[in-house]
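Quick check before the chapter quiz. The format below is the same one you will see on the exam, so make sure you can read both the input and the output lines.
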Amino acid sequence: MLLDVGRFVQNILYRKWRLPLFVLAATPVALHVAASQVPQQSSASPAGQQSPASPGGAPPSVAATPAPAEQAATPLARAGLNIVVLDPAHGGTDLGARGTGGIHESDIVLDFAAQVRTALESQGFQVVQTRQGNANPSFDDRSAMANAQRGAIFVTLHIASTGTPGTARVYVMNDMAPGADATGLIPWDRAQAPFVSLSRKLGDQVQGLLAQRFKGSPPIAQTASVRQLRTTAAPAIAVEISSVTVEDRTQLDHMAPGVADAIARGAVAFRPTYVVPVNPGERP
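Here is the expected output.
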C-alpha cells in the first residue's frame, strides 16, 4: 500500500554507501543534490549519447567542496544503467496492507522481490535490495541506498488494499518543480524532481508489459505523490499489485513471475535512455 508519510532523515548509512550525488549541509535534514550535476536523458542513440556534467563525489560525513573548474572540464567516460535498487515495502512492525486470511503486504512483497531479483540478474543487472528479511528501514534509508549508486534505477514493490484483483499498476511522482535554492542545490525531499521525465519513461515501459500480461491493468504509468519516490535521486517507480482482499494468497503468488518479467524487460528497454558521467580512472 502506497503511503505519503514524512520522516526526518535519521541514521543515513553514510559509512556503508558512497553518496556521489549529495552534499551534506549543517542540519540533519538538509541533504541536497546539485541541480546542475543530475544525469539527463540522452536524445541520441546509445552509440552517440552525450554525457551530462560530472556529478562529483562528496565525502559521506563532511560538507562537500565544489569541484575546481578545471575538473568540470575534464572529459568524462559514460556509464550505462547497471544497478537496480529493489525495495520490498514495509517490514518489521509495519505490515502494510492487511487482508483476510492473514495476508500481509510486507510478507508478500518480500516474496515478489525474490523473483524480481532473479529476473533482473538474468538480464545482467546488479540488484541492491533495501531489506532481505523482516526489517523496516526508514524511507530515507531506502532512498539513500539508491542515491548512493551511480547509474541506478529504483523500484519499490507494494500490494494494494483496493483495486481489481489480478491487475498491476505502476506509479511515478507527479510533476515537481525543481525548487533549487540560491546555491543551486535541490533539497533532499525534492530529489526526484530532475528525474520525473525519466521515471515516467521507465514506468511506461514496465506498465505496458504489465498490461499485456494482466488484463484490466492500465496501458501507461499513473502519477501519484508517493513518499518513497520523492526523496530518490534516480529514475524511480512504484509497482503496486491488487490486492490483499483476495481470499486465497495463491492468487497473488501466481502473479509474481509475470510482474518480475515485466520489471526486468522494462528495465532492459529503458537502459539505453539513461547514462551517467564517470570521472576518468574511477569505476562506475
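If your answer matched, good. The longest helix spans residues 105-122.
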